[in-house]
């Protein structure tokens, strides 16, 4: 049985004052709840340390939104896996479609970052997902399987079994147009099949696969009811404590 996992990806949102207000409301909402799942938030890099302090006692984990593939060196404007760990992160989002679209992230760098994260004990949340043109042409399954295979190249079965994958169809992100539970389940099953062929059935059964793309309280429960959907990666609806907690409630 896989433990569900819900993460809020705050992207380029929320400043220090917003974090303080968010955690106060979040802790008050959580005081009457004991969710049977893992959950957390990915704030901007400058807030990682403060978020670690501020969410303490709430049960939330912290994720970085990205890391560099090198530990240190002349790479202006980024953070390493070690910096994320120093700031208290336990997870890191890797290969988000916005990184792929706007920051030249490709399958090779995604794989390097996944291996870097694992080497310092960070759990990667590896994002995959097809653009609308690929889905319209019927190539979505092949496209996503190839992203998964490239991202996880050279991992051992033990390593692979610990990661989280987020299936986020690009056309569903920030559009209000979520994949139907059936569409998402079909892709999640295909991803698990790919994992099984690469790392064996037992490792594949352990990997948690989140769905992401316009998840909100009103559609979370039907998505989570699908056998291969093990949680969600939430953008817009994670920016308010009450809407994130409503999704948490729907998961349980
Ligand atoms: P939305 O929930 O705003 O569609 O964003 C999804 C996402 O990109 C999470 O990483």
Note down, in words, how this protein is organized.
With 252 residues, the protein is of the alpha/beta class. It has a single domain (5-251), classed as TIM Barrel (Alpha-Beta Barrel). The protein has twelve helices and eight strands. It has helices at 16-30, 48-55, 81-86, 97-102, 107-119, 132-136, 140-151, 157-162, 181-199, 201-206, 217-224, 241-251, and strands spanning 5-9, 38-42, 61-64, 91-94, 123-128, 164-167, 208-212, 231-234. An eight-stranded parallel β-barrel has the order 1-2-3-4-5-6-7-8, surrounded by six helices. Helix 3 links the parallel strand 3 (61-64) and strand 4. The radius of gyration is 17 Å and the shape is globular. The chain starts with a strand and ends with a helix. The structure holds 1,3-dihydroxyacetonephosphate. Residues 9, 96, 168, 173-174, 212-215, 233-237 line the site of 1,3-dihydroxyacetonephosphate (13P).
Q: What's the SSE blueprint?
A:
Elements: E1 5-9, H1 16-30, E2 38-42, H2 48-55, E3 61-64, H3 81-86, E4 91-94, H4 97-102, H5 107-119, E5 123-128, H6 132-136, H7 140-151, H8 157-162, E6 164-167, H9 181-199, H10 201-206, E7 208-212, H11 217-224, E8 231-234, H12 241-251
Parallel strand pairs: 1-2, 1-8, 2-3, 3-4, 4-5, 5-6, 6-7, 7-8
Helix pairs in contact: 1-2, 7-9, 11-12
The structure holds 1,3-dihydroxyacetonephosphate.
1,3-dihydroxyacetonephosphate (13P) binds at residues 9, 96, 168, 173-174, 212-215, 233-237.
Can you tag this structure with a few keywords?
single chain; 252 residues; alpha/beta; TIM Barrel; eight-stranded parallel beta barrel; 12 helices; binds 1,3-dihydroxyacetonephosphate
């Amino acid at each position: 049985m896989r433990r569900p996992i819900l993460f809020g990806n705050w992207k380029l949102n929320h400043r220090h004052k917003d974090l303080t207000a968010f955690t106060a409301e979040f802790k008050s909402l959580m005081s009457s709840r004991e969710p049977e799942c893992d959950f957390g938030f990915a704030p901007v890099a400058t807030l990682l340390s403060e978020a670690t302090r501020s969410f303490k006692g709430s049960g939330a984990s912290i994720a970085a939104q990205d890391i560099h593939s090198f530990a240190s060196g002349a790479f202006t404007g980024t953070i390493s896996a070690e910096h994320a760990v120093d700031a208290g992160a336990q997870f890191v989002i890797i290969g988000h479609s916005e990184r792929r679209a706007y920051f030249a992230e490709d399958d090779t760098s995604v794989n390097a970052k996944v291996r870097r994260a694992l080497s310092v004990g960070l759990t990667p949340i590896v994002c995959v997902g097809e653009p609308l043109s690929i889905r319209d042409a019927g190539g979505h399954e092949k496209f996503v399987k190839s992203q998964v295979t490239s991202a996880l190249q050279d991992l051992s079965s033990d390593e692979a079994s610990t990661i989280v994958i987020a299936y986020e169809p690009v056309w569903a992100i920030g559009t209000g147009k979520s994949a139907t539970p059936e569409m998402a389940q079909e892709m999640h099953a295909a991803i698990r099949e790919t994992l099984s062929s690469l790392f064996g059935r037992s490792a594949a059964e352990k990997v948690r696969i989140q769905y992401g793309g316009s998840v909100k309280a009103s559609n979370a429960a039907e998505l989570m009811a699908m056998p291969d959907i093990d949680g969600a990666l939430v953008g817009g609806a994670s920016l308010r404590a009450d809407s994130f907690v409503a999704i948490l409630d729907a998961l349980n």
